[in-house]
Amino acid sequence: MDRAEIVHENFLRRVATGDLPEGRAPDGPLAREEAVAIYRAGCLSRALDRQSRAMQKAGQGFYTIGSSGHEGMAAVAAALRPTDMAFLHYRDAAFQIARSMQVPGQTITWDMLLSFATSSEDPISGGRHKVLGSKALSIPPQTSTIASHLPKAVGAAWSIGMARRHRPEHATLPRDAIVYCSFGDASANHSTSQGAFNTASWTSYQGVPLPLLFVCEDNGIGISVKTPKGWIAASFKHRPGLKYFHCDGLDIYDTYRVAQEAARYVRTQRKPAFLHVRTVRLYGHAGADMPTTYMPKSEVEADEANDPLLHSVRLLDQAGAMARDGALKVYEETGARVVAVAEEAVTRPRLKTAEDVMASLIPPKRECRATNGPEPEAREKAFGGDLKAMDDPQIMSRHINWALTDLMLEHSEIVMMGEDVGRKGGVYGVTQKLQARFGQDRVVDTLLDEQSILGMAIGMAHNGYVPIPEIQFLAYLHNAEDQLRGEAATLPFFSNGQYTNPMVVRIAGLGYQKGFGGHFHNDNSLAVLRDIPGLILAVPSSGADAARMLRECVRLAREEQRLVVFVEPIALYPMRDLHEAGDNGWLTPYPDPSERASFGEVGIEGDGDDLAIVTYGNGRYLSTQAAKRLNDEGIGTRVIDLRWLSPLPETSLLEALEGAKRVLIVDETRRSGGVAEALMAVCAEHLDVPFAREVARDSFIATGPAYAATMPSTDSIFEAAKRLVGGDA
Q: What is the pTM of this model?
């Protein structure tokens, strides 16, 4: 007999005989009717756990990480409002069930069984995964990535205070809401968790409103590794800016009372709190896990003897809310109802085709208030003397600064955040004057933590903002890349498009900085971004293009709810000259605020048919230099700027290549895993002309005179073109 059946049989026997565990008498503000409802939620959670295992054995269910032992979380849900956004631990079925009782019209048993069965009718994920979540209940679905939801919970809480001052058009959270975020004791040790706790404390310490309730469900073990006794309390009791509460999750009366106190503190003081809930884990980690293989049987049985449902039966009986025989009847009837509903749930349709699965990768468009661009008076006030400078060609960094200013004037829901973006104006001055123009609320200097920066943006997007977070250097993204891959990109996928987190992530990156920084400030790899489904990756090459593309990126985020990454080539920020010193050949006039570069539209320079160079970013600058030399030698050359690197603009690219006799791909990313690999595949699949590539070596970038030694140069592009032309002459 497996542990789930042992726990079940023990419950039936012990309730029938009155052999209930000892504990404190019921005490606190929990009313009888609500106590019974919490117990019912716990019984349903338990029955669903048992049914999930039965469904798996029958080949009809596909998820068995259960919530047994954590049924007390139903009491926490009862202490909150259903409009308090909840980012849940994966053992929080009882929480979601209890919350469903607060919102009319819910069919929680049916919904959860559809999720276990991965039916396409599952109301949250559409059959893509077994996740807790509900749009009606303000519960965004969570992945199994450990602790990755904590940073965005901080961002969502921060957005509530922000919305009191600048409420966005698509705000979803009430002005007096709090944000709830739960996790296990093992997850509390994860670096992502620690970053979120630190950011919350750092924010609260400065008096910034942050109505966030962290809840640690402490069952004392993470799969097989035990949490040292007292570790969670010792770690969190005395953190600055984070008030600590503790309750016994085996006692629904104590849990409800303390959860109410914690929620009241967070809601009235607008400060974060940490609620430490004692729980037990029953059955092991998941269906295939046998806890007796790594724990003494006596310890497993001791946890089973402390079954929270047994404690609830005792407490309800002592409070006069429900007698033992009534509690046993509820348990048995709930189990029977779940079995009956499951028989129908497993017959419902499932996803079948790739198109079915991928249907929610791209979020739905949304209606936005129409705008006519920034008002002339507002522009004059914001730009001041810069307005006159717009008559003259400018460097890229200034174009981006002005484009951000125009966009923030036009769309009040845009908020920027990042290291040094405010007072300093960014490491390269790209965001200079923006904080003076728009205030500290909308241009936020964050602490040094990329996970928290991206998490803040994701959370703010949940409340209707269009965040523009900045990652200072491309190499720094890797500290936090899962916030994009595991959270931002998957949210519409796992919520069937019901939840989205649109944003434009600005990243300074790529190579060719002369003599500065080496790899850590000149990372030339984009592979980590290009293989995230649903993510749009844009790389401009000139100032005017940067402005036009950034406007399109914001439109994509604001109107189409897309996740966009805008990588700005650092070496091109100050670039002035093209062919010779003083020619100002790379300066461009600032385009009118109404101009955009459409998503998927490539840029074309020249009309030569002998050779087409396909490139982007720094490659366009170098290829333009090489193209002049080639044209001077009678080799008619055109340069095609991809602009959009993910998804690749294949249709527009192939149109731009029409008539070209040869194609040279110039790619500043590495030979292995670089953009050129995909472009070579496009050429092989669609073209009947010779093609080749000139790419960076599989190497990191050095500091000093050899800063560009491993990447394409004007000379190497010229020589590669000559070889390609000469090879079929």
A: 0.96
